[in-house]
Design a protein that fits this description.
Elements: H1 2-18, H2 22-47, H3 53-56, E1 59-63, E2 69-73, H4 80-88, E3 89-90, E4 109-110, H5 114-124, H6 126-147
Antiparallel strand pairs: 1-2, 3-4
Amino acid sequence: MPNEVQGRMDEVFDKMAKGMTRQQRIKANDKAMDLFEERFKENFLRSMNNHGESILRTLTREKTTGGTVAIGFSKQGKKAYLARFHNDGWVPRNQYGGPYPVHGSQPMVYGKHFWENTEEEAKHGDLGKRMSEREIEYWKKIMDGKARGGGN
C-alpha cells in the first residue's frame, strides 16, 4: 500500500513540474541569481581594491528559452574585455607585438579570478546553499498554490 501511494504522489509531482511555465522558471532562477550577483560584485570590488564601478555597471542578465538565467557583461558596455583581462590575467606586449624581455622570460600579470571564486562559492560554499534555499522557497509557494487549485 505505501508503494502505491508513493507511486501516485510521484505522478502528481511530475505533472505539477511539467506545469511550470518558462516565466516561473525564470523567476525562480532570478531569485537565486540575485544572491550570486551580489556576491560576485563583492568579490569583484574586493579583488579590484574597490575600483571598477564602471565595469560593474555593464553587468547584465540573459534569460534563455529553457528558463535559465545567465549573468555576464554586456557587449554594449564595451568593458567586458577589461573584466576578462582582470579575471584571467595577461602577458604584456611591447609596441611591436612581442613580449618584453625580462631576464629571458615573459612577465605575466596574474588574474584576480573573481569569477571562479564566486562560482566556487556557489558550488561548494554557503552561497550555493542560500541560492538553493531561495529557489526552493519560491517553488514551494508555487506548488502550494497549484495544490490548492490556483494558477500561481
